């Protein structure tokens, strides 16, 4: 009986170990240009931060989730300890300054492979949509 049960459950476990789906569909077509602190430019696509399609930022005592799809630009204004002050420029032209963890890990893909960076190591991120 144990052999039969184990033979039935082994395929289930194998299928359950499939690879993750990757970036959510809302960010798959987003391309970004990252300007790092050394002045180097990096062209990436399908960006995520902390594995999410939005940024968790603070404005005073309130935490917000800002969708990457609504952004045109992220500028890191300053880094002090574990906190980075960033300016978000939205597609509608509005700008706002927020606090975020300086150790926020963002990822993307490039022609070279997968890329990752911390916001504290970046000057600016420009969002490009519809470009080839």
Describe the structure.
- Residues 1-18 form the signal peptide.
- Keywords: Signal.
- The chain has 132 residues and is mainly β.
- The longest helix has 15 residues, at 2-16.
- Residues 12-20 have low confidence and may be disordered.
- 14% of the residues lie in helices and 54% in strands.
- It has one domain.
Task: Give the key terms.
two-stranded antiparallel ribbon; signal; eight-stranded antiparallel beta sheet; mainly beta; 10 strands; globular; 132 residues; 2 helices
Q: Strand order across the biggest sheet?
A: 7-6-5-10-1-2-8-9
Mean pLDDT: 87
Helices and strands: which structural class?
A: mainly beta
Number of domains: 1
What is the molecular shape? Answer: globular
The helix fraction, in percent, is 10-25%
Keywords: Signal
Signal peptide: 1-18
List the helices and strands and how they pair.
Elements: H1 2-16, H2 25-28, E1 30-36, E2 41-49, E3 54-59, E4 62-67, E5 71-80, E6 83-90, E7 95-101, E8 105-109, E9 114-118, E10 122-129
Antiparallel strand pairs: 1-2, 1-10, 2-8, 3-4, 5-6, 5-10, 6-7, 8-9
Please outline what is shown here:
Residues 1-18 form the signal peptide. Helix content is 14%, strand content 54%.
């Amino acid at each position: 009986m144990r052999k039969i049960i184990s033979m039935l459950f082994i395929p289930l476990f194998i299928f359950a170990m499939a690879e993750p789906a990757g970036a959510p569909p809302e960010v798959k077509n987003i391309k970004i240009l990252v300007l790092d602190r050394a002045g180097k430019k990096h062209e990436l696509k399908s960006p995520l931060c902390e594995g999410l399609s939005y940024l968790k930022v603070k404005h005073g005592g309130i935490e917000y989730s800002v969708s990457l799809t609504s952004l045109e630009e992220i500028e890191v204004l300053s880094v002090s300890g574990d906190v980075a002050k960033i300016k978000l420029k939205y597609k509608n032209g509005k700008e706002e300054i927020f606090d975020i963890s300086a150790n926020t890990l963002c990822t993307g893909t490039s022609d070279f492979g997968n890329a990752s960076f911390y916001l504290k190591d970046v000057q600016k991120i420009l969002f490009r949509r519809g470009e080839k």
